[in-house]
């Protein structure tokens, strides 16, 4: 356990105090004494309200539990449910029509449409990869994935696969940057006969830069390159502007349970804001140092240079209102609300960017972009707005320079989305749907209404369609187009790019101007969808359409009249138990909060706490309603522990779920607790139990 130092009545863990005073404050012209005094005042002001908001969640949930349990059939009626939820203050009146007032927003958020990466804040290499994913090679993305049929032959460059890639890339150019009287495959050299000459915006050497739907495309011409040398036009690659934005995550994808973890994540954010983050690693026997990419400079004939950012615009995702952190103790001896600490420290670090103290700029508009997850309803959004006001005052920032992204992932938020947006209308830059967390909260909120349908059936239900559709329509009605992002959730299968290309085009077609992807390669391929769909034209098409009614959103996904067979029950138990164990064992034993975890069919899926929440709540719900017994669940966990152990056999850091001498390891105990204690967890969140077991694992070494 870290030693603490006293600062303005607060007890600050030594690593955190040293980090702030020795690495963050120097150069900012902010005295440590004044900073800690202001920090103490913020905690004194906002901690009681934070606690009251959590108590309000519990009180509402208790009322909902009682109402559902008294007459489950009544709970299945959306009209009766709406009346009840209004009577207890869970639902509030929709505000009169309004337009968000957010100003000083970078164009990557307000005026462009493209992919968005989410990356764990504790992994420097992944952070640098994500920040540099602003530009991606289409040739590489097509060559090395299943985006095209077949696969390259091993043993060096496969020219047949290469020809397949080049043909697909040039077909893309025919669609996005068409030539007047020929196909790109026919072009050799000389003047380029563009159908629309205004698409040409500059060049680097012989390489040509074009713009389509606001996104840049560089056709790399290099006749000395092995590929360019055999191409009739000397084209060596097609490079796409891809991940316009990226979210540095301090929440669902990290395992940060103490001061050392928090400081490690904060230090990576500081490195990004100062531009000096580096990571050295060995790849194929070669030592590599990864740094942030430089800006890209092009020459515009007759108009000088055009400089484009070489990096994604970065958000930082703070934690929600629920968790506390041992990194800072309050005067009453209690742990500080972690979300308040995040707001203060991540904004303080961002001053290095706003004041131009680093080697690269993140926000050229002069804003700090914070994604705030897991807020329940407009009163919690209003709390965040006031908290950010106080942080701005502490740091000497103009009002509303700290922007907020609101994750629409809790039932009370999506049911009151317009009111939530209204509560932060001067600083909101982002709303985003998250199917997994939203489904986890759906199941927990209505735990007493009945057994839920299997996990795989959730996406086909009316409430999900209403949720996704209302999010876009409400965002547009509140004036998001041209001012802020409307986002959609993650593609979870990083090895299945053909499926992603076939399915994820639905996101820009829905009117969303960003969507999450799991890797830089996926960002490059998903960028193709934003060339296929002019998102802002699509937003204009649907802007006048009515917002879907609330009733479908309130349709609880209970399995009415279902009589599952034993095989169906066992299959669902195994599927969820395997997913829980495969994720939790890495979280508890290795501190990995996000990774590609093999599912029950050995397909690698990107898993984080959101996926864990839905699986643990589904099993908790089935236990609660007797669909499965405790014995059934125990048997599934034991069966799937053997499978997960086998799937991780090649990992030298892996610890068997069975533990030593037949005693269940901490990870197995944690997974079991998530299910058997799931119905009692606050809003079904997994963090309290995960943190408890991870701290114990760290204490054991």
From TrEMBL:
Its main location: cytoplasm. Residues 314-544 form the Malate synthase TIM barrel domain. This is Malate synthase G. Residues 17-67 form the Malate synthase N-terminal domain. It is found in: Cytoplasm. GO terms for cellular component: cytosol. Keywords: Acyltransferase, Cytoplasm, Glyoxylate bypass, Magnesium, Metal-binding, Oxidation, Transferase, Tricarboxylic acid cycle. Involved in the glycolate utilization. Catalyzes the condensation and subsequent hydrolysis of acetyl-coenzyme A (acetyl-CoA) and glyoxylate to form malate and CoA. Monomer. One of its GO terms (biological process) is glyoxylate cycle. Acetyl-CoA binds at residues 118, 125-126, 253, 290, 518. It catalyses: glyoxylate + acetyl-CoA + H2O = (S)-malate + CoA + H(+). The lineage of its organism: Bacteria, Pseudomonadati, Pseudomonadota, Alphaproteobacteria, Sphingomonadales. Glyoxylate binds at residues 317, 409, 434-437. Its cofactor is Mg(2+). Residues 568-649 form the Malate synthase C-terminal domain. One of its GO terms (molecular function) is magnesium ion binding. The active site is at 317 (proton acceptor), 608 (proton donor). The keyword Acyltransferase applies. The modification Cysteine sulfenic acid (-SOH) is found at residue 594. Pathway: Carbohydrate metabolism; glyoxylate cycle; (S)-malate from isocitrate: step 2/2.
């Amino acid at each position: 356990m870290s030693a603490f130092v006293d600062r303005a009545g607060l007890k600050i863990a030594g690593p955190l105090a040293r980090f702030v005073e020795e690495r963050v404050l120097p150069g900012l012209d902010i005295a440590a004494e004044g900073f800690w005094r202001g920090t103490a005042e913020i905690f004194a002001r906002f901690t009681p309200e934070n606690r009251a908001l959590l108590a309000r969640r519990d009180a509402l949930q208790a009322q909902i539990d009682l109402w559902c349990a008294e007459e489950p059939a009544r709970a299945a009626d959306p009209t009766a449910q709406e009346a009840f939820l209004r009577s207890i203050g869970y639902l509030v009146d929709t505000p009169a029509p309004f337009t968000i007032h957010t100003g000083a927003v970078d164009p990557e958020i307000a005026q462009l449409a493209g992919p968005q990466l989410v990356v764990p804040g504790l992994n420097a290499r992944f952070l640098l990869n994500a920040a540099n994913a602003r530009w991606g090679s289409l040739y590489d993305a097509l060559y090395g994935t299943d985006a095209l049929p077949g696969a390259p032959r091993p043993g060096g460059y496969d020219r047949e696969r290469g020809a397949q890639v080049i043909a697909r890339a040039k077909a893309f150019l025919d669609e996005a940057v068409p030539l007047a009287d020929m196909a790109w495959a026919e072009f050799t050299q000389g003047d380029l006969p563009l159908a629309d000459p205004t698409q040409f915006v500059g060049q680097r050497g012989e390489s040509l830069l074009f713009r389509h739907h606001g996104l840049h495309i560089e056709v790399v011409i290099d006749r000395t390159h092995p590929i360019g040398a055999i191409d009739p036009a000397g084209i060596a690659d097609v490079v796409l502007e891809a991940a316009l934005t990226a979210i540095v995550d301090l929440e669902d994808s990290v395992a940060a349970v103490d001061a050392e973890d928090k400081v490690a994540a904060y230090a990576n954010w500081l490195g990004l804001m100062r531009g000096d983050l580096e990571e050295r690693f060995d790849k194929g026997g070669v030592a590599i140092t990864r740094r942030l990419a430089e800006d890209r400079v092009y020459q515009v004939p007759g108009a000088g240079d055009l400089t484009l950012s070489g990096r994604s615009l970065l958000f930082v995702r703070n934690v929600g209102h629920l968790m506390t952190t041992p990194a800072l103790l309050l005067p009453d001896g209690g742990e500080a609300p972690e979300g308040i600490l995040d707001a203060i420290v991540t904004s303080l670090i961002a001053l290095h960017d706003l004041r131009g103290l680093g080697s690269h700029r993140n926000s050229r508009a002069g804003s700090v972009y914070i994604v705030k997850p897991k807020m329940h309803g407009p009163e919690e959004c209003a709390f965040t707005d006031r908290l950010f006001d106080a942080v701005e005052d502490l740091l000497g920032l103009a009002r509303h320079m700290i922007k907020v992204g609101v994750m629409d992932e809790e039932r009370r938020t999506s049911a009151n989305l317009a009111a939530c947006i209204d509560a932060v209308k001067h600083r909101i830059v982002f709303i985003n749907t998250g199917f997994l967390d939203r489904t986890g909260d759906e199941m927990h909120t209505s735990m007493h209404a009945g057994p839920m349908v299997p996990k795989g059936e959730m996406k086909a239900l009316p409430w999900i369609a209403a949720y996704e559709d209302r999010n876009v329509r409400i965002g547009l009605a509140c004036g998001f187009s041209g001012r802020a992002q409307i986002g959609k959730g993650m593609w979870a299968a990083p090895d299945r790019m053909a499926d992603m290309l076939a399915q994820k085009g639905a996101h820009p077609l829905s009117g969303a101007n960003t969507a999450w992807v799991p890797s830089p390669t996926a960002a490059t391929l998903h960028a193709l969808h934003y060339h296929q769909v002019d998102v802002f034209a699509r937003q204009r098409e649907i802007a006048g359409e009515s917002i879907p009614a609330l009733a479908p959103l309130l349709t609880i996904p209970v399995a009415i009249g279902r009589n599952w067979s034993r095989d169906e029950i066992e299959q669902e138990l195994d599927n969820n138990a395997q997913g829980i164990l495969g994720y939790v064992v890495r979280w508890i034993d290795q501190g990995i909060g996000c990774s590609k975890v093999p599912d029950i069919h050995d397909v690698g899926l990107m898993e984080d706490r959101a996926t864990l929440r839905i699986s643990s709540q589904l099993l908790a719900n089935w236990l609660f309603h007797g669909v499965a017994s405790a014995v059934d669940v125990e048997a599934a966990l034991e069966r799937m522990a053997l499978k997960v152990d086998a799937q991780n056999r090649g990992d030298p850091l892996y610890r068997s779920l069975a533990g030593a001498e037949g005693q269940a390891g901490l990870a197995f105990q944690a997974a079991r607790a998530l299910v058997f204690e799931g119905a009692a967890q606050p809003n079904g969140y997994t963090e309290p139990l995960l943190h408890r077991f991870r701290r114990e694992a760290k204490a054991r070494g």
